[in-house]
Design a protein that fits this description.
With 267 residues, the chain is α/β, with parallel strands linked by helices. It has helices at residues 29-44, 60-69, 89-103, 122-134, 148-157, 181-188, 209-215, 219-227, 242-249, 258-266, and strands at 3-5, 12-14, 18-19, 49-51, 77-82, 108-113, 138-144, 163-169, 191-195, 233-235. Helix 1 packs across helix 2, helix 1 packs parallel to helix 9 (242-249) and helix 3 (89-103) packs across helix 4.
Length: 267
Amino acid sequence: MEYRALGRTKEKVSTIGMGTWRMGSYRTPAEKEGQVRALKRGIELGINLIDTAEMYSSGKSEEVVAEAIKNQREQVFIASKVSPDNLHHDDIIKSCSASLKRLGTSYIDLYQVHWPNPKIPIGETMSAMEELVRDGAIRYIGVSNFSVAEAKEAAHALSKNDLASNQVEYSMSNRYVEPEILPYCAREKITLIAYSPLARGQIANSVPSAILRKYNMTPAQMMLNWVTRNDQVVAIPKAAAISHLEENASSISVRFTPAEYATLTKG
């Protein structure tokens, strides 16, 4: 597994992480256990970045993560997110406390603002985040779905901490981050966490078959390899099935040539 620095920190997170959207939604105990086993398998493969949120399955996603990381908390880097309606100071403190309880841990490695909320001053939000860092409840501060202007405002509102990351949608079929957000993150050494890197299941079918044959890759592996070609990017594909997770984990075992990346980028 390949690892990259998180923002300006010295933390190393796996280039391919595990997203947990819709995890925690299950009809049977066996289905839940399958989700837990998939996350455990990812950890075995060297994936240390697990991303969740209080919003996912009404908190049950965090509970699934808690079962997966039991007795191996120090081997993983847990990222969670506070919902946009909970960005007032006291609400953030309460949300973090509830997430910690569901996750079964005393700290969250990366705590992110899930979506911006223009009705709540970002200064109030970032003040609460820094308070959580000071108290040891969280280690690093991130945002999600923030534009460059919103990320700048968030970063400027922090007095003692750096903005570590911005989690945004990014895939071969959704490249809206490339003109402004990705260059800004690169300049400021902010990690871009790419969610839905497999385009919500719309796997690219116009992939040069020669590249797939050369590297013995599936289209999904090629998409993950492509989206993480920039050192500033890590990706968090969802993988509720062990077979998909193993496929994702091996997607960056080799890297394409610059000319091949250029060919794929041109589409």
